[in-house]
Amino acid sequence: MNARSTVPVLCGMTLEHAAYLAILLFAALWRWFDLAVLPLRGDEARQALAAWQAAQGQPVSLAGLSPLLFTLQEATFWLATGSDALARLWPALAGVALCLLPFAWRRSLGRGAALLAAVFLALSPTITYFARYALGDGLAVTYALAALTAWLA
């Protein structure tokens, strides 16, 4: 990025920050639009059903489930009623957060390359698929890269 990208555009926001905000909004809409249009698949349903049963106080078996996603879904189902969209909420949020991680990589990658990486992550069909799928895979990728980012900082 050049010097023009650091010039305040609106309310102290630079052009670079506005670009990241646009990427954030696009990624959120891309991952959250019609999140519940398709019913949960078998493995998603098993994960969500166990979390819903636990939120209702019923005993469940955690074998083969993502512990982090189970805990997040259980808390969500305890606070609100269960739905397909709520079952997929946390992976979708993690998928949006993943698109913003390159912001922290600007110093090592350079501003332009980090912005391009954020665009690629926001547009990636694979990342979008896992962000819209109620399993722990998307959460694992996001949190692993976030931990690596924090460790390298």
SSE inventory with pairings:
Elements: E1 8-10, E2 13-14, H1 15-32, H2 42-55, H3 67-79, H4 84-87, H5 89-100, H6 106-109, H7 111-123, H8 125-131, H9 137-152
Antiparallel strand pairs: 1-2
Summarize the entry for a quick read.
This protein is mainly α and about 150 residues long. It has helices at about 15-30, 40-55, 65-80, 85, 90-100, 105-110, 110-125, 125-130, 135-150, and strands at about 10, 15. The chain has a two-stranded antiparallel sheet.
Structure description:
This protein is mostly helical and 153 residues long. It has 9 helices and 2 strands; from the N terminus they run ββααααααααα. The chain has a two-stranded antiparallel sheet with strand order 1-2. α1 runs parallel beside α7, α2 crosses α3 and α5 runs antiparallel to α7. The relative contact order is 0.15.
List keywords for this structure.
66% helix, 9 helices, 153 residues, 2 strands, two-stranded antiparallel sheet, 3% strand
Structural Rg: 18 Å
Distance between the termini: 21 Å
Can you tell me the residue ranges where pLDDT is under 50 for at least 5 consecutive residues? none
**Count of beta strands:** 2
Task: Provide the spatial order of strands within the biggest beta sheet.
Answer: 1-2
Q: State the helix count.
A: 9
Helicity range: 55-70%
Largest sheet: 2 strands, antiparallel
Going by helix content, strand content and strand pairing, the class is: mainly alpha
Percentage beta strand: under 5%
Q: What is the chain-wise order of helices and strands?
A: EEHHHHHHHHH
Envelope shape = elongated
Instruction: Let me know the average pLDDT.
Output: 92
